[in-house]
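are you around this afternoon, could really use another pair of eyes. what follows is a protein written twice so to speak, once as letters and once as structure tokens for the fold. i want to understand how the tokens follow from the sequence so walk me through it. anything you notice is useful, everything is just below.
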Amino acid sequence: MRVDHVSYAAEHDGLRATAERLSKLIGVESVDGGVHPRFGTRNVILPLANHNYLEVVGVLDHPASDKAPFGQAVRARSEAGGGWMGWVVAVDDIHPAERRLGRESVEGNRHRPDGVELRWRQLGVKGLMADPQLPFFVQWEDMSVHPSGDGSKVSLKGLEIAGDPDRVREWLGLPSDFRSDEVGFSFVCPRGTPGLMSVTFGTPDGEVTI
């Protein structure tokens, strides 16, 4: 299990304008990610080192966005002004998480503009909607087309989360003393709705926190 990516919902001026602002802040060129037909959303990718990436996601005027939990979550966050929506962990086998949480994963896919199809299974978006401090899970079908950028000089360094670390570890099925060696986590007591508050990136010019 590892942190896979972080998701940022488009602000009021739209997906591309939001992605361009974030691109300039961390110094990573954005890539058109394509459409999620099952979810009624589309994304722009900022590839990062170490098999991580930043996803900027927007909702489409499509019936799927009203039915799929992920589309609903994106729409709600964008209508509230946009910003950090959540974080995602990748697993090699999603079945243990299915058994632990008592629910089934769903298929996801999108076609990149170059025609390559990315496929995965995901689980836990409803958990994210109910308690935004919680990540959701993905299992990639083919890591050779993962959206990260192996040559990127920008990395994901840390997440600040308003919430309870014990609740997050329980959701992930991790022991109470688990600590990540790859991404730093800091938790603050929520003064409102819990969730992902900020993300820190390591860049050639120093750390940047958004």
Notes: The chain has a mean pLDDT of 93. Helices lie at 15-26, 64-67, 69-79, 95-101, 125-130, 165-172. The chain has six helices and twelve strands. The two ends are 24 Å apart (CA to CA).
